[in-house]
Description:
The complex is a heterodimer of chains A (329) and B (354). Chain A is α/β, with parallel strands linked by helices. In chain A, 32% of the residues lie in helices and 21% in strands. The longest helix of chain A is centred in the last third of the chain and has 23 residues, at 298-320. Chain B is 39% helix and 18% strand. By secondary structure, chain B is α/β, with parallel strands linked by helices. In chain B, helix 3 packs antiparallel against helix 10 (305-324). In chain B, helix 7 links the parallel strand 7 and strand 8 (224-230). Chain B contains twelve helices and eleven strands. The interface between A and B is large, with 58 and 65 residues.
Amino acid sequence: MTAASLVARNLRDWRLRLLAGALGLVALTFFVRPLALTRDGVAVLAIVDITGSMNVRDYAGTDGQPASRLETAKAALRDLVAGLPCGSRFALGLFTERRPFLLFAPIETCGGFAPIEGALEAIDWRMAWEGDSRISAGLFRSIDLAAELGTDLVFITDGQEAPPLPSSGGPAFEGKPGAVRGLIVGAGAPGLSPIPRYNDRGRETGFYGAGDVQQENRFGPPPSDAESREGYNPRNAPFGAAAATGTEHLSSVREPYLRKLGRETGLTYAHLDGPGGLAAALKTAATPRPVPGRLDPRPFLGGAALVLLLAAFLSPHLRARGFPTWKKA
Amino acid sequence: MNDALARFCVDHPGLLWLLPLALLPLLVSAQRSTPVAAIAAGPADGLSRAIGRVVRAGGILSFAGLILALSGPYRQGETIIRTGIGAQVSILIDRSGSMNETFAGRQPSGAEESKAAASRRLLAAFVGSRAHDQFAVTAFSTAPMLVVPMTDRHDAVRAAIAAIDRPGLDYTNIARGLAMGLSQFGPASPATSRALLLVSDGAAVIDPRAQDALRAAFTRLRPNLYWLFLRTKGSPSISDRPAGEDTPQAAPERHLDLFFRSLRIPYRAFEAEGAEAVAEAIAQIERLERDPIPYTEQRPRRDLTGLAYGLSLIGLLILVAAKLGEADLRRVRAASGPTAKPRASAPEPTRLAA
């Protein structure tokens, strides 16, 4: 038997063919180029509520310590931005009083990740310029802002209006519902928690008590049940004689109210469950915007080569143990 | 060497759990196995042993290379410090409501430009005119707001500046704004040239307690201070003495200027009453900030996937060559007898026994 006939015979060996296949696949990895493809990115404006009720610590942090709603919202946004495909754009704003304040116009999320992360990290309730928290007004103006910037909206709030809404309800949404898509994210636990209170030097001094906040909005016409209240007098005591009582000094996420705002404005409601999980909710709610992506085909070739290599080494042994293989030696 | 190892990273570390598979060639072989009555019958053959080892090594190499390649290895990018011309510029922007008025103190109409829009346009041109400048943007009204931390990503800085002609907020609380603007410098080598650029259309009283804290911070950081004062026509200038009492409450602009002068740091005030004057002031600042600055250059990470595939390719070549050169001793014997063994098959029995 000559060397040539030996090689020819070996060429019929299926294990050689498996190895040669693996060799071919690996060799191919040096020639393939990344495939150009289009991925779904997003362009989003995130508005973060920095009013006092966002300081409520009703989340658990990574170390098990209580974490405030604001800290959790910041972590969730950081996680969201880190997971967005390159080419997505992210703008950031703050909400307090009755209006959003744009910190920066949309930035590309991969190249600009460091500044975005730094800006998110720096968000603080001390940046608030006024104390009110008129959520619906802030939300409607945030929608206008997102429309101007041409982005979707992520509005993170706990939904606690301060002062409370009058009995006639909040302002009506005048825009076109659904023109701006996005999320209203409800931050906070469903149970009531005390709201931390800070002094004018920014140090925490305790919690708000029932008498520290407005429990009922007594501007505008009185509610319809006012006549049945004790001491009601249409001229002198249209809201009844008793001081208003309530739980406005405690805070929980006001989901029914945020859902109602979502229905009015065409935004999707999602609850903030922790420092993650916004990405999936945003993906379904946001407008997909094509961004160029690249697919590296090498892992597929390499994976197939590894399977062939394993088959070449293991199949005789598997067959010997009674595992079915596809070809006889 | 340690340094090189420390910078070695993979994208999917979970896949490295497959690496023990690379020991498979030590246990099983892809070669054909031939039963031999007594392996000791053949003489010990150094060449055969060597070939056996090479084939095993080839097997290990192909497995390890493939698994490594699949896990996406790369060498981390490194940060190199170089020196260029530029500065760390902390831009502190007044976002009080009056910035949205024109230089004439009116709401802008038609082709008129508000003070905020003019500074937005001119600052955006300033950012990015030199590659090695680093910028931070802070906004302030009642409270200071960190907009963008010190960064060399000029796109991000321009995006932050693009937001400054949005409707402004309430008041001008300049002390807290200055404190945050100074805090943006962070730790840097003392040789770094730092500039604090305050863009405002008014001033406010800084209370004495805050003055001391600010004075300490200015002394420690020693930034060059530029105050771009966007003066509304008809309002008092920095240098105007008020007619009545000369108190900070009566002339906050003048007293802020006096405070800045008392800091004993390089300080210049530019009073601009129109967009051209703002442009002139910014050009002047650009000329003044010409010190060498150490800047960091990010070397991109180096993809090592190709190298891993290359290793695997070498291993596979050895395996395929071994398979091609392999002989079936039984068939050879049957065909031509043990004497006519082809040369290529000679090491076979010892190799399998090894």
